[in-house]
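Before relying on records like the one below, remember that each one covers exactly one chain. Contacts with other chains, cofactors or solvent are not represented anywhere in the record.
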Amino acid sequence: MVLEEEIPKFTAWIGPALVSWLFVAGLVTVFAAALAWLVQSALYGPLAAGDRVYRGVLGTLADLAGMSPRRIWALARLAVQESLRRNVLVVLGLFAVIVLFAGWFLDPASVNPGKLYLGFILSATNLLVCLVVLVLSVFSLPADIKAKAIQTVTTKPVRTGEIVLGRMLGFALVGTVLLALMGAVGWAFVVRSVRHEHELLADDVLEIRAEDGSISGFEGRMNLARGHRHRVELGPDGTGRTDTVQGHRHTVRAVETATGRAYEVGPTEGLLEARKPLRGTLRFLDRQGKPSTKGISVGAEWSYRQYIEGGSLAAAIWTFDGVTEREFPDGLPLEMIVRVFRTYKGEIEKGIAGSVRVRNPASGLQCDPIYFTAKEFTIDSLLIPRQLAATTTDGGTRQVDLFGDIVTDGRVEVVLQCLEPAQYYGVAQADFYLRRGSGSFVMNYAKSCLGIWFSMLIVTALGVMFSTFLAGPVALLAALSVVLVGQFREFIQRLFESQVTGDSKIVPGGGPIESLYRIVTQTSITLDLDPSPAVTAMKALDTVLLAPMRLGAALFPSLSALGTSDFLAGGFDIPWDLLGAHAMETLGYLVAFFIVGAVCLKAREVAA
């Protein structure tokens, strides 16, 4: 799973986020008031314009302060009834058709079928729910104004803020019901699609005998199911696990029956999970074994992962804090994702060998290498036992205790090396972690649906806001434009950071003028431009242009940033700190869109 930045604690995040929201809200308010004064000045003169703006602000505050929950709920019920009259429930039939025929196009024999099915069902749910509430919200109020049905409401003791908030609440209730139904059907679809069973027949199991002729274990192969089969290695007692295929494995247990020995195969392990990881910090050693700030670039356009060279002293080292014997009594359950970059094909089915060692960060004592073969595109697990072998200075071997000799003050280092020359391992900080437990997949699925709910609320409020001063089709276009620009919010922020710091590795290619220059001259984005006066001036002008873009991009909501499907599909528990941050961000946009909508509707004077 891609996790480029550490998720901050909610208590540490909320303070700076609230200050930033208040600062941006103050700037927008001052700018809007100044713009309104300029427009009114052109019509009525400066003094009259100031008086009108002042009275308008006081009237809006009084209007918002005098809202009634009963009237808001009554208007929300009207919005729900209007949605039902427009046959909004038809979207449930469309979703059912999508689910029925999805099996024709989704490959159950893919590398990770759980990720495939979850990604599809969450994307379909998100698209349908947000699209339905957007269409409802942008066309409802303009249609009432055009038909003059709004006069029957505004002539009653109803405030404009109540009209806006009531419609937001009503359409949000409709979207919530649709999301709940689609989410329940989607969960059943995913569970049914990935669930499968294997059989291990006694005839397919072979005995493994030691040199003295005693049985040391068993090995065999299961039947084909869902386009794959597993190899299994069992101990002398007939218990063991299969290998990992398509991101999962099974437990196997031998049982004695009246007709002989049989084998029971357990359910899938690794699919539809909610891992709770303990993550560490990553640093690198170069091929001479010296500390390095980064690994090797193999030319990939996306430099999320750094690579270490095989057959050398190059290594990737993770430092974990908070490791206690109480939390990991049986050892350290290490899980890892390792990418492989091959400079020559070799034996493609054999895999690239590597090693893992645990080391004391204070004394430098480390265990002997634990060898493994990289399994690409899947999460590999490795249990580091309590008792480990360590080579002494005189060439001998002694036993060391994991928590007594390796872990110090809750800290331990995990060292990864690639053993095959001219081959490379690619890793990122989030690729190695200690599994500290598992959460409920059902709860994790509900958390991911909560992210869709946040997006639905923002889309609803955005549509209602634009509908207070724009016609339906124009409001729809404006809302879609805001959502589209918001998808590039993080990119614009990183581009501005790259431009200010001069670090082209953050976003290669530079700003708009530099990008145009590279297109005309056909200069690669990976090459640095010569520091000539013209190039310096061009970069300075780009910085000036990107400053307002950076400020403006912060105002647009990013629906993709609110999504947590990557956590769910990757099998990781969604942190509550992240959901708390998303909830507060959503609340901030809802408050802003509601106030803007109430002000615009009051200024429109629909009752005139």
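The chain has a mean pLDDT of 85.
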